[in-house]
Amino acid sequence: MPPLRFSCECSQVQYEISGPLPEVLACHCTQCRKSSGHYWASVRVQDDQIKVISDTTLAIYQSTDMAQRGFCTACGSTISWRLQGRPGLLLSAGCFDDDLPVRLTGHHFVTEKGNYYDLKDGLPQAERFDYPADPSPAPSTEEA
């Protein structure tokens, strides 16, 4: 599979992502809703899967005592979330330019979700998010 292209809205932050992806997750926590404008869908990647094409407008800030968020200073796109002391990085699913070979598999922090929407897709719902130490890639949705 060729690398997947990833960029912010203004394309000043651009990556190529190689290798398998585990899944798409939706986080409904208050911080994700405030930083993204709704719930935040993300894909976990390992650092060695990311080839930086451009990141001159990428800013990282300490959003809590244990996590950092990345965003583009030019367009404001939410780019990433990293839990300190754990491998990997969560990237915004909506910033992938190419179709993702994986699908949404569940919702996290559903007790913090906004009261203006319902979750009726039948996917698993969790009150918290247990960050996996080393996720296994999900099966691809692409035809062989």
Characterize the structure shown.
The structure is a single chain. By secondary structure, the protein is mainly β. The chain has one domain (4-112): Metal Binding Protein, Guanine Nucleotide Exchange Factor, Chain A (Beta Complex). The protein has 1 helix and 10 strands, in the order βββαβββββββ. A 7-stranded mixed β-sheet has the order 6-7-8-9-4-3-10. A 3-stranded antiparallel β-sheet has the order 1-2-5, with no helix packed on it. A hairpin with a 5-residue loop joins strand 8 (78-83) and strand 9 (89-92). The protein starts with a strand and ends in a 36-residue tail after the last strand. The model is unreliable at 135-144 (pLDDT under 50).
Straight-line N-to-C gap:
11 Å
**Major beta sheet summary:** 7 strands, mixed
Supply Rg: 15 Å
Q: Total number of helical segments?
A: 1
Determine the structural class based on helices, strands and strand pairing: mainly beta
Mean pLDDT: 90
- Spans where pLDDT lies below 50 across 5 or more residues: 135-144
Silhouette: globular
User: What is the CATH domain class?
Assistant: Mainly Beta
Q: Can you tell me the CATH topology?
A: Metal Binding Protein, Guanine Nucleotide Exchange Factor, Chain A
**Which H/E pattern describes the elements?**
EEEHEEEEEEE
The CATH architecture can be named as: Beta Complex
What is the number of domains? 1
Total E-strand runs: 10
Percent of residues in helices comes to under 10%
Domain CENP-V/GFA: 4-118
Protein name: GFA family protein
Family: Belongs to the Gfa family.
InterPro entries: CENP-V/GFA, Mss4-like_sf
